[in-house]
Amino acid sequence: MSELSSQLLIAMPQLDDPNFKRSVVLLVHHDEGGSFGIVLNRALDITMSELMRNSGIQWSAGIGSVGWGGPVQPERGWVVFCDDGRPGAAPSDAAEADVATLQHGVCVTGSLDKLRSVASHPPSAIRLFLGYAGWGADQLESELAEGAWLLAPLRREVVFDTAADHMWESVVRSLGIDPAALVPARGIH
To answer: Quick one: which of 37, 45, 51, 178 has the most CB atoms within 10 Å?
Structure first.
């Protein structure tokens, strides 16, 4: 299968697992060993400033919500941000290995040092998540073949500017598909 990283996975209606029902997942990494992504459209009842305060990190940005990134390691934090040229935002040579740079300047890191850096000099767009979604070798390909997911191109405005409760429908419509036309079929349950 072709390279899937830097795309969005859109859950089909038959994917009724509560972890992924109507989810939009930023696919950060995919290779023969498995896949790693972050669910973009599930909010948690905690603010960024509360999470940072609990982590001992001073937060210089506004108050935003923290997202639930997936069921794997829910205690682990992930930062999704824009590489917009601000100090602390762009991956430095030392931190390059800790930051995945996707299309359109969207970056992802789980590094606490990088989190401290972006917290002190916040980029123009930033989101925090707890947990992630993971698939073993060939698992995602199998789910795609069964029709459990649609693929959509990564768009920066989806990640940072689209409200979580409207994201699934918005991305489906961006593919030229009426969400009402998606009929549940045999697939992952």
So the answer is: 37
